Amino acid sequence: MNKKTALITGGASGIGKKTAELLAENGYQLVINYRKSESEAVFLAKQLNDHYGTKNIAIQGDVANKEDCKRIVNETLLAYSGIDVLVHNAGPYIHERKKLTDYSFEEWDYLIQGNLTAVFYLSKLIIPIMRKQNWGRIITLGFDRVETTPGWIFRSAFAAAKTGLASLTRTMAMEEREHGITANMICPGDITNEWKEKNIKDSLSLSSENHSVGRQGTGEDIARVIQFLIDERSDFITGSIIPVTGGFDVLGKALRT
């Protein structure tokens, strides 16, 4: 395939890192965006350059900040001729369990901006580039059953932002289909931090009663779905919200614990 360029936000670690590794393996040129993890992002880009012979760079920027988004796109276009794939992986999350009234105004604003408004910023800047190419792939990340607008106790800001993002993703799919651009959302299951950078084979030896498939989910599980959706032959799949949960009830777990 002709080398395509993919911008992965929050690509220095976790699911973003596993996605970067799989796309580089399949010939993609990568922009690995990071907010604070400079050493990890630079090391990953160099590692992928050396291993796969592709051109990969790291660009700092907080996607919740409009000016940072402009700079990320401008620096990308200085290095590459276009942007073919946008993977919106970055998204702030507060692990502390808080009811709505316990969030500070600043926390609420940052969660909404980082998980929803950031996607508007980057999509507004990148979709015109994709239109000129008459081709593009946009991937967003949600959570289990987000398309049903569920309540999620102690996760009000995050859930509200991702629910809005599900609607936004489907709207982009409808508006941009005539330009050869698809937009889909992937909803990971309960993949804990230590498993976000692991491979499927790492989980096969460990049984898990929480998942109907009998094993823990991994970052590779999500990266494989992203790889499929951005393939040139996957153009018939757009506006979809795809759960990748191993049959695990994420919201039920959040309610019980």
CATH fold descriptor: Rossmann fold
- Intertermini distance: 46 Å
Instruction: Assign the CATH superfamily.
Output: NAD(P)-binding Rossmann-like Domain
Query: Domains counted in the coordinates: how many?
Result: 1
Q: Quick check: average pLDDT?
A: 93
| Run of helices and strands | EHEHEHEHEHEHHEH
Low-pLDDT runs of 5+ residues are none
Please identify the structural class as seen in this structure. alpha/beta
What share of residues are in beta strands?
5-15%
Lateral strand order in the biggest sheet: 3-2-1-4-5-6-7
Q: Helical region count?
A: 8
Quickly list its features.
257 residues; alpha/beta; Rossmann fold; seven-stranded parallel sheet; 7 strands; 44% helix
What does this protein structure show overall?
The protein has 257 residues and is of the alpha/beta class. The protein has one domain: Rossmann fold (3-Layer(aba) Sandwich), CATH 3.40.50. It has helices at 14-25, 38-52, 66-79, 105-133, 156-176, 200-204, 219-229, 250-256; strands at 5-8, 29-34, 56-60, 85-88, 136-141, 181-188, 241-244. A 7-stranded parallel β-sheet has the order 3-2-1-4-5-6-7, with helices on both faces. Helix 1 (14-25) runs parallel beside helix 2 (38-52), helix 1 crosses helix 7 (219-229) and helix 3 packs parallel to helix 4. The radius of gyration is 17 Å and the shape is globular. The N and C termini lie far apart (46 Å). The mean pLDDT is 93.
